[in-house]
Design brief:
Blueprint: H1 9-18, E1 33-36, H2 40-51, E2 56-59, H3 67-71, E3 75-76, H4 80-86, E4 89-92, H5 97-105, H6 110-113, E5 119-122, H7 128-140, E6 144-147, E7 150-151, H8 154-159, E8 162-168, H9 170-175, H10 177-183, E9 184-189, H11 196-224, H12 229-238, H13 244-254, H14 264-280, H15 286-303, H16 311-316
Parallel strand pairs: 1-2, 1-4, 2-3, 4-5, 5-6, 8-9
Antiparallel strand pairs: 6-8, 7-8
The protein binds ligand NA7.
The site of ligand NA7 has 21 residues, from helix 2 and helix 5.
Length: about 325
């Protein structure tokens, strides 16, 4: 059924072979690094930490995903608490606020491994309240906290080309220098106020989500008025809208290739969280609110785990 999300393992492997991590001369910190969450983002990030010579201990809820990383030189922890106990700095990158709550406050969770001086860096994109609760609980036990959500999806994660937005403990930010060098092309410290980096990240992803939704509607309308989508994609690529998102996502729509670079359900989460933030400060968000509905519809159609470009399916339904 060609209406169903397409995720071909063969094409993903083919694509992975085309990815060339940017060669960097990183001097790895001697600190022991922990990493919780080997999803699309975590996988690329851990590979780049290992490649640059960091000692990394990994944990993932689905244990099987650790195997490839152990083969590549990682150590394996049996629980988040154990990783935090055995490492100096532990990073986490999991799906959403509820995953972070499970990870931090759950049984054998991060909190149980925190003792004075232990450092924890939250890289998932979640709501401000949750990240602040986690920060409070960790610092109350003598731990050190930094939030560091990232801008970029699967390919930038694999290539070490993310943009890291950080807020919280300044010394911990400095101590993460070699890790951030390995993971990204730029890191920004936005101050000691935990929440500032999440706010920045949500605004960036709100813009991304509305641009993608608009592209999807344009491509859907092209079809309805008898235009060739390929021509629309070409004209877009020649004009001032030519940017990696518009180029790659119009190709994804043309080729009906929705293997996840940025899962659609995470984009909808980010729009939802951005709308909540707008609500808090009485900022009208007409365009983002409309885009959010389109992503909700795409989820309903079964595209939650597909790439955000599958929002086209909701626009063209
Ligand atoms: P993915 O590829 O959807 O991966 C999600 C990860 O989160 C994956 O490792 C999951 O483990 C893990 N997860 C989900 N729920 C839980 C709970 N309850 N407890 C522990 N671990 C959990 O997401 P991405 O890598 O694309 O994105 C990660 C974040 O970066 C997200 O906030 C984005 O918005 C930005 P699993 O393998 O399913 O056992």
């Amino acid at each position: 059924n060609d209406d169903m999300p397409v995720t071909s393992a063969a094409t993903q492997i083919e694509e992975s072979l085309l990815i060339k991590p940017v060669m960097k001369s990183v001097i790895p910190t001697p600190s022991r690094i922990g990493f919780l969450g080997l999803g699309i983002m975590g996988q690329g990030m851990v590979m780049n930490l290992l490649r640059s010579g960091h000692e990394v201990t990994v944990w993932n809820r689905t244990i099987l995903k650790c195997r490839e990383f152990v083969k590549a030189g990682a150590l394996k922890g049996n629980s988040p608490a154990e990783v935090v106990q055995s490492c100096d700095i532990t990073f986490s990158c999991v799906s959403d606020s509820s995953a972070v709550k499970d990870l931090v406050f759950g049984n054998a969770g991060v909190l149980q491994g925190i003792s004075p001086g232990k450092c924890y860096v939250e890289m998932s994109t979640i709501d401000e309240d949750t990240v602040q609760d986690a920060a409070e609980a960790i610092t109350a036990r003598g731990g050190v906290f930094l939030e560091a959500p990232v801008v970029g999806s699967r390919v930038p994660a694999l290539e070490g080309q993310l943009v890291i937005l950080a807020a919280g403990d300044r010394k911990l930010y400095d101590d993460c220098y070699s890790c951030f060098e390995a993971l990204g092309k730029k890191s920004l410290y936005l101050g000691s106020d935990v929440g500032a980096a999440m706010r920045m990240k949500l605004i960036i992803n709100m813009i991304m989500g509305t641009v993608m939704a608009s592209l999807a509607e344009g491509m859907a309308m092209a079809e309805k008025v008898g235009l060739d989508q390929e021509d629309i994609a070409e004209v877009l690529s020649l004009g001032s809208l030519s940017c990696p998102t518009v180029i790659h996502k119009s190709q994804a729509i043309l080729n009906q290739k929705y293997d996840p670079h940025f899962p659609l359900q995470h984009q909808q989460k980010d729009l939802r969280l951005a709308l909540q933030l707008g609500d808090k400060v009485e900022q009208p968000l007409y365009v983002a609110a409309a885009a959010n509905e389109l992503y909700k519809k795409a989820r309903r159609l079964g595209y939650g785990e597909s790439d955000i470009s599958a929002v086209f399916r909701a626009a063209s339904a």
